[in-house]
Amino acid sequence: MTEHELQCLLVAEREWRITELEFCKKIPFLYTYPSFRSHYPLFWKFCIPMIYSHWEGFCVASMKLLVDYLNEISLSYQDAANHVLLLDNRKRFSYLQGNCSTDQQSRFLNEFLASQKTGVHIDRSVVSANSNLNFKQLSKMLSYFEISVSPVLDQQKPTIEKLVWYRNSIAHGENSITVTQKDVETFISCITKCIDEMLSLFSTYISSLNYCKKDS
Asked: What pTM, to 2 d.p., does this model score?
């Protein structure tokens, strides 16, 4: 996978999601039946899980594309930045948790030494939103690539937190949540801004070779 191909895949991951979200806002107005208007509140409520799924879906899918790219460029342990090495060993660190046995320590050491010879190959499963992509989890996932939360993302924090709260409440059967058309439009606008900003951050990460070890 080339840098250009990765950029195209990231953009494609954005395009189909934003297209669906924008169409979601228009669906109620495609129907002119007076009786349908009484169901608007329910429709807006149903929009929340969809908006959230695109939010979490883009974040996870785009970061897995970054992992695929890092795996395909054949990074050696000597050339990879420290955060890439941490990603490569993230699953192995679980061997050392708690009161680990000598066998677990040996397993970690053997796999670590083998990786030094074969180079970076990150397990895609290390990228996970844990089914609850609030702002704290987003920051954590970006930190895997040593990408800091930008002012643009930080500005959207209250709206992201509100979206996640709405989604969790609806998912757990909470019936007191009232969702309006304005809420839906605000959430879609927020997610669109966040996705576009993350594309920019990922582009800088790739073009600046931030995954490579910098000379001291």
From this structure: 0.82
